[in-house]
Amino acid sequence: MSDDRTDDDLEALRRALAREAAPAPDPEARARAMALALENYDRFQGRASGLRQGKDRPSGAGFLNGVRRMSGSFFSRPLLAATGSVAALGLALVVVMPNARLAEPPQTAPDAPEADARLAAVPEAGGGAETAGAPVPAEPRARSAEGAAPQTFAADEAMPMAVPPAPDFALSKQAAEAPARALPQGDSEAFANAPDNPLRVTAEDPVSTFSIDVDTASYAILRSSLRAGQLPPREAVRIEEMINYFPYDYPAPESGTPPFRPSLSVTRTPWNPETRLVHVALQGRMPAIEDRPPLNLVFLIDTSGSMQDPAKLPLLKQSFGLMLGRLRPEDQVAIVTYAGSAGEVLAPTAANQRSTILSALDRLDAGGSTAGEEGLALAYRTASEMAGAGEVTRVVLATDGDFNLGISDPEELARLVAHERDTGVYLSVLGFGRGNLDDATMQALAQNGNGQAAYIDSLNEAQKVLVDQLSGALFPIADDVKVQVEWNPARVAEYRLIGYETRGLRREDFANDRVDAGEIGAGHSVTAIYEITPVDSPARLTDPLRYGAEPPEGAHGDELGFLRLRYKAPGESTSTLIDTPIPDMLTEASEDVRFSTAIAGFGELLRGSDKLGAWGWDEAIALADGARGADPFGYRVEAVQLMRLAESLSR
Asked: What domains sit in the chain, N to C, each tagged with a CATH number?
């Protein structure tokens, strides 16, 4: 019966083809196809103005040059022209097939006029959160079992290593609305990182000191790699930025107390039940919007030739347009651009003059080299002219990080920015695009400019950084925040800090108010995780020294260690000290603790760590999925999806 039906279908197809006349050739379509083919040929041969070769990277020799010569013989312009004609003929044959469906091409960022038309529909400054034209937040995912209560673990119970049945995931809107896109081919990306923090022996080195970090760039960069079907470079993975990408529901500070509140928890380690994890969590105060000081923003925008890509300047324009809906009439915006030279595109303008600001953004085009030093200097001059008493003034640098004129060395740029920060002007950095992303320079600028570094890979990420978390990104509540933990050798034999490799400080830096550290913005939460080994644990990796000093019996026996924090009020030069003991007491692993632990494990797996033993992708995914909680914007379910994708790519 099936064979007869197949014959009938084929006969019907023949009759349909006989009736249909082939469409007339379309000269315009053929010309467009030819132009695109030749443009791609030029890009392949290196004549297009897109990606630039890194200044300090080899351009290729030997085998690579042989491949280029061989490919040149195969991909000549005449041969491409002939191939384009054949491809056009094939497309015409497909068109006449009844009911044939062509796959839709992947979406790219819309052209600037269309984007600005949508942004123009956003209500004026002072409008509510439901701004027209903004992305719709992802709906919270249902719990694993309908009506089931969130899973908790007792203080003396280890986080699970068993793997539950794989849940039926539905891709979050945030992930679905950002179509996969291959990464540009380039070898000039540079990332800021350092070797993993080593295991420390408490009796020899009991004090750990570091600067807090609220940057999120690393997580967004690794997400863009995974969505493009590639594992991220190991050096792009900074675990503290992965953990701190997510909001947590830590206890907020009470009225009349310091601007942030520390919380401590001690739980069993999921990958090693014989050790413990100590979570140090800080939650910043969120002032009411009406209590926010006036804000002066200078958008410093890279318009060099490398910014032509749709994921760079076009996305940048849309991202800044989204932010305007959250600014108030008393806030001011100026725009400075830099390419071959720097210039002021928009003089300081009240934030409620939206059409004027959007029009200035719309006029931006990419082209030329990258005069980064000149742009920074002009942006700081503009910011100093805008600054007023009691106001917050910030330069927001938007770039792919490729500085090739003026000062290009990250250390020299850092010194320039460090000099300017003393005037009270903050500097934040937003990265766009891949292929020549200079994350190392971006990190140096943000860390020395008292600001945050974020990477924008989609309009959804722009919504998160510049709209949902605008107060935390732009309004500081504590400067130069430092953390110091002194571990008790009578209780802790060994410890290691997970992440924060680029944020380490010397012990003497803690009390030195001239040493710069990280900032906490309004409503920000910060998490740091230590893995510690109790003195009587079989997981201990080092033996006691024969001639080592024995800790006195009963010395602070109820304490694992002592936490000290230092911070400065914005604009102040003298720090304030907060301290509290870390009790030697197992606590219940809350949802936030379990999820942040899973993300730490995610980072360790991406970095190829040898600290996890047999604990792997299945366990990390199960732990994260069981701790997603309400997740109103879908950030946590997206993380689980990325973990599953990373598992597949790592095989």
From this structure: 25-49+58-101 (no CATH), 112-133+288-474 (3.40.50.410), 173-287+477-540+556-650 (2.60.40.1230)
